[in-house]
Design brief:
This protein is of the alpha+beta class. The chain has seven helices and 17 strands. It is elongated and about 95 Å long.
Length: about 375
């Protein structure tokens, strides 16, 4: 043994030393599930009053009677005809409906749903002027004026629809050797539970991605079942950006949704698209607020104000860069048929096997209350 004059230590000493490691390991950063955080993993159950469980979930929807139609005649209507006035769908009309066509008003006397024609009492009702109207001119139902003592007339009837979705099963297997399960590691007391706890956040990211990329497929004993995403439901209101997003795209989509009776409150987009939207504030047409003297740049956008209401901005990196979604949050939710659970499987050899499994879906009610901006480039 070498005798040293005095103890000494050097930074180059290669002797192994104990590492100082936190016993708590942050496994996933970031969590990557802003939509799930916003809506909740099983919010659809309460929003849509789902009391039963199933792998196919249907929402019963109805709507009020339509209030507009259009002329269906290549020659249009002349300024004097009162019978045989061709329309797209005469079943929308009943005796007494006041119609506005251009600036002329008329009152329906009868409607022939089989022939798709209507008859009116006279042209130029209420002092308006009779006029010729071209094909495809919109006919607005703006009121009612019926004959006193007239028999009952049965107008249009809307039927209940049932938008639906299927559930998707999310699974990840776990296998830990007997040795690894027996020993303790820095920050990990139980390797099996560590892997199980790590699997759940990973699978939640796939649930989040399902909202943007999911395909609604019924499945069978030999084919997988799959839940559809937002695009499965949103088919009515669409605006094509045709380039980088601008605020006018958001305003135009909001206008269409409001005219359809919706009141959206969320704007969901990819971070790259959100950055382009943020860059619009450099335009002099926007009003700027004062900045703190110690702050460089401008505050992040959290809400987008339009003529038709405010939208909370939800930035989601899984959202396709080419599409942004405008949603009415009380009509969107995730559905959990089976929340994530971890359990052991039968042992095979000197190892512990298990899996984490959950089953989820996405539900969106009232298609007209939502919309999307497509064709976005960044």
């Amino acid at each position: 043994m070498t005798i040293l004059d005095q103890p000494k230590t050097v930074y180059s000493d290669a002797t192994a030393q104990a590492r100082v490691i936190s016993d708590v390991i942050s496994m996933i950063d970031p969590r990557d599930t802003p939509l799930l955080a916003k809506f909740g993993l099983d919010s659809a159950r309460e929003k849509f009053q789902l009391s039963l469980n199933g792998y196919k979930i249907e929402l019963l929807e109805d709507e009020l009677d339509p209030l507009d139609d259009a002329i269906d005649n290549a020659a249009g209507w002349d300024n004097s005809a009162t019978t045989g006035l061709a329309v797209d769908d005469a079943s929308k009309f009943q005796d007494g409906h006041i119609l506005l066509v251009g600036s002329e008003k008329l009152v329906v006397k009868s409607a022939d749903a089989a022939a798709n024609t209507i008859e009116v009492y006279a042209r130029g009702f209420g002092g308006t002027s009779p006029a010729a109207h071209a094909d495809d001119t919109i006919i607005y139902i703006v009121g009612m004026a019926r004959l006193e003592g007239d028999d009952a007339d049965y107008g249009p009837r809307t039927d209940i629809t049932a938008p639906y979705n299927y559930t998707s099963i999310f699974q990840k297997a776990i296998k830990v050797s007997g040795t690894m399960h027996a020993i303790s590691q820095h920050g990990i007391q139980d390797e099996f539970m560590y892997q199980a706890n790590k699997a759940a956040p990973h699978l939640l990211r796939l649930v989040e991605r399902m909202a943007f990329y999911g395909e609604r497929v019924e499945g069978s004993a030999t084919a997988p079942r799959s839940a559809g995403g937002l695009d499965t439901f949103i088919t009515d209101n669409t605006v094509d950006a045709g380039g980088a997003i601008v605020k006018a795209d958001v305003d135009a989509l909001m206008e269409e949704i409001i005219l359809d009776g919706g009141y959206p409150d969320l704007l969901v987009m990819n971070p790259r698209v959100a950055n382009d939207l943020r860059a619009l504030l450099d335009n002099s047409s926007f009003i700027r607020i004062g900045q703190h003297e110690l702050q460089f740049g401008m505050n992040a956008i959290e809400r987008v104000v339009t003529q038709y209401g405010e939208l909370e901005l939800v930035i989601d990196r899984w959202c396709p860069t080419g599409t942004a979604y405008v949603l009415q949050s009380d009509k969107v939710g995730f559905y959990a048929l089976r929340p994530f659970s971890a359990y052991e499987l039968a042992r095979v050899g000197d190892s512990i096997r298990g899996e984490v499994v959950g089953e989820f879906s996405l539900l969106l009610a009232n298609d007209k209350a939502h919309g999307k901006i497509t064709g976005i480039t960044t």
